[in-house]
Amino acid sequence: MAEAGSLADRVKQQADIVRVIGEYVSLKKSGQNFTGRCPFHSEKTPSFAVHPVKQIYHCFGCGVGGDVFKFVMEMDRCDFMDAVRTVAEKCGIAMPRARESSPEERREQQQRTALVEMHREAAGFFTRQLQGTPEGKAALGYLRDRGLDADAIAQFGVGYAPSAGDALLRHLKSKYSDKLIESSGLVGRDPSGRMYDRFRRRIMFPITSEQGKVIAFGGRALGDDLPKYLNSPETPIYTKSTVLYNMDRAKESIRKSDVAVLVEGYMDAIAVARAGVGNVVASCGTSLTEAQVKLLGRFTRRVIVNYDPDTAGQAATERSLAILLEQNCETRVLALPGGKDPDTFIRSEGAEAYRKLLAAAPSYLDYLIERARQPGVATAEEKLRAVNFLLPFVQRIPDGLLRSEWATRIAQQLRVEAPVLREALRKAATERRSEVKTLPALLMRTSKDAERRLVQMLMESDEIRARLAEEIRAGELFRGLETEKILTALLEVCAGGERPNVAALGGALEEKDRRLLFEIAFEKAPPSDWRDAESCLCLVRLWKVEEELANVQHQIEAQPAAPGGNGDELRRLFTRKMELGRRLSELRDLSVAGGVAGDPAKSS
Hints:
Elements: H1 7-14, H2 17-22, E1 28-30, E2 33-36, E3 48-51, E4 56-59, E5 65-66, H3 68-76, H4 80-90, H5 103-132, H6 134-145, H7 150-155, E6 159-161, H8 167-173, H9 178-183, E7 187-189, E8 195-197, E9 202-208, E10 214-221, E11 229-231, H10 247-257, E12 260-263, H11 266-274, E13 280-282, H12 290-297, E14 302-305, H13 311-326, E15 330-333, H14 342-349, H15 351-359, H16 364-372, H17 380-395, H18 400-414, H19 418-430, H20 447-460, H21 465-474, H22 484-495, H23 502-507, H24 511-522, H25 530-558, H26 567-593
Parallel strand pairs: 12-13, 12-14, 14-15
Antiparallel strand pairs: 1-2, 2-3, 3-4, 4-5, 6-9, 7-8, 9-10, 10-11
């Protein structure tokens, strides 16, 4: 907020909001106001209005609004003071002079300015080497084989570092001191102290700042030299953890589309951009950092990760997802078919095929679940392995409601019981564990799996049949289940001490229930014991309590608001809700423990 008398307040008083917003939005005079299409949501009919007298804006479609600083902060994804400086610059308002720099600060600034100029000079040198030397022509042929035409090479400033050990060094020595050249990262020193070019016989990719100034280079070896890719070291003008390749070209496209495509390398970024996806940036072979995500966050919170699908790429994807989740980014993952990286895929399948796959990229969780499902999730051990693979990612989601929703999705995909999984994840987070302990209840997908297993045990398990029938009958656990009629018939047979006969039972049931009974009878039944039965009973009780709790909440919401409402009924419902909440917590503990005898919910 611009406080009275502050610098921001003085800038706001002099600023013309119509002029500032008019640089971002096409505005037309409409009465005393100006109108245009809202830049914050997609619309065909203009509903965005700017009031020149009150110096405010408002969209009658999506509801956004504020003053000139709020608009610039939202559009440029910058902080308040950056917005003040931007508005002042756009309106020709003089900003007060900064405090006098110290001699040390002036020297550091002079060094940074000289290093930026040196890198501009080096970029021009590499470009000339690519275009005007016999050695460069061979590199040019390689680039054309990789699909880069003259326009792409010029657009991205691609060059070539010759094989001679000091070609760039000799070029720079005429303008810069040895000390400054060494601090640039463009040269190194051998054991004898002699300086030499850091980059030799490499395709050169300029790495630029967000403002488009060359601050470093990435070099790809043409032959068998190692490493395959060599990047500039950190210098006074380059900190690799804070820079994203192609950010200067991509930022406007990212802002407009509200999504960024994240790839690994230079060639991938160039190929994707040339395929018509201008909102692409690359992490330049380094693991994605929190600073890089925060840089992206100034323009969008939506990211599509499209790293190479090989083992290293999968590991990089998982590391990147962990950071993106912590920063509350809406993340999707594109794993290209055939084990291809973006550059290879686009050259073989075409730009249109790539754009279609990009548009259909699944959420990060679907990607992770698919990874967790390999090689399979049929056994309890495999399900537990998959859950423990996913757990660290779920724990990094800041929003509790979103964590719960993702837990439900995981349960559905891995065929485990959702309430049990949510409780297991909660306990692991509370105890700061990175894994879930063995859970017998994870063998069940839903209460439907549990009730089918109860039918199997009543038909097959002579040792526990009578006790199991009594538990089901006492708690009326069969009520409301899909297998209610089957269980009712089985309980009648068990009450007479007989062993159920599937054919006889089927003959007494309606067609729908007979089919279900026969389906269950043909399913392979693992050996069962009382602990298995307890697990199933506990899951069914859990489901029934959740159902009643949801019904009670619905009744509470349906009560008429006071005055005139039924206060006694509302108190009764809230009391019942508290009782059910306590019982639900007890049952979840029992589910995680695998069920115990003498279940406190037996009377439900």
